[in-house]
Write a structure and sequence with these properties.
Largest sheet: 3 strands, mixed
Mean pLDDT: 87
Helix content: 10-25%
Number of helices: 1
Oligomer: single chain
Structural class: alpha+beta
Low-confidence stretches: 1-8
Order of helices and strands: HEEE
């Protein structure tokens, strides 16, 4: 089960595009360290729901590297 965010306000700081190019494990840890309560990593082309969830950051990961990042 996905943990519920502890805050409904996304953390401020580095923009989503700053995670692109990082190894996925490093990006996930960095996001958690910066206060993101829900970090979701997905392979390219994943079928996902499009509901917006404040406090969640999403990574698209190919070959262990973040290729895209978006909020919600």
């Amino acid at each position: 089960m996905t943990p519920m965010p502890s805050s409904s306000v996304p953390p401020e700081g580095a923009p989503p595009e700053s995670y692109v190019g990082l190894p996925s494990g490093r990006a996930e840890q960095l996001a958690r360290d910066r206060g993101w309560s829900v970090v979701r990593s997905l392979p390219p082309g994943s079928i996902i729901t499009m509901e917006y969830l404040e406090g969640r950051i999403n990574f698209e990961v190919k070959d262990g590297t973040v290729t895209r990042c978006w909020l919600g």
